[in-house]
Amino acid sequence: MRGAALAFCGGAAQAAPRTPSRTAPQADVYLLRGFGDIFSTGIDEIGKQLQANGVDAHVEGHQAWRFVLNRILTDQRNNPRAPVVLIGHSLGANAVIDIAAALEKKGIQVAYMATFAATAPAPLPGNIRRVVNFYFKEHGWGLPLTAGPRFRGSLDNRDFSGMKDIGHFNIEKQRPLQDEVVRNVMGIVRSR
């Protein structure tokens, strides 16, 4: 993993999620938290929103990225048409890029990626269709993402430097951003 960052936060619980179908997943949706596996509670909230909408979303700590990669590879062998969605905050944002790079080597596409305040992101591999990155040009941890040599997808880097009360520690907790990410994922899942 590249870089390190701390994230302090607090978050509110949401309604209990509906249990997703146990048939083949409609999408491989994974969300990775940042440092310490106790921070990045906004990632937990996005996961809960997706689960409440019937999406089989999995939330893990950034250090579990190889486990997540192996789960996606297994799922894709069983259901290669299931879109892959990756979401991460801080070190989790770095990790989802690493997962995408490993998936590229296996010929697996990533339909959508959302990253919040990546601390040391690798260049984006060529297998990602759409990326939205929330970062800080002037303050706080969080860097813009860059396209790698094979990347031909859509990259939307959004600088939140000018937002007075938003920083590395709470970017993923912003309700409008959470709602946007959930809408984007639901659009992918529902289009199947």
Automatic annotation (TrEMBL):
Pfam families on file = Thioesterase
- Which residue numbers delimit the Thioesterase domain? 77-121
Q: Which InterPro entries match?
A: AB_hydrolase_fold, Thioesterase
Which SUPFAM superfamilies does the entry mention?
alpha/beta-Hydrolases
UniProt protein name: Thioesterase domain-containing protein
According to its UniProt entry, this protein's organism is Brucella intermedia M86
**Lineage in the entry?**
Bacteria, Pseudomonadati, Pseudomonadota, Alphaproteobacteria, Hyphomicrobiales
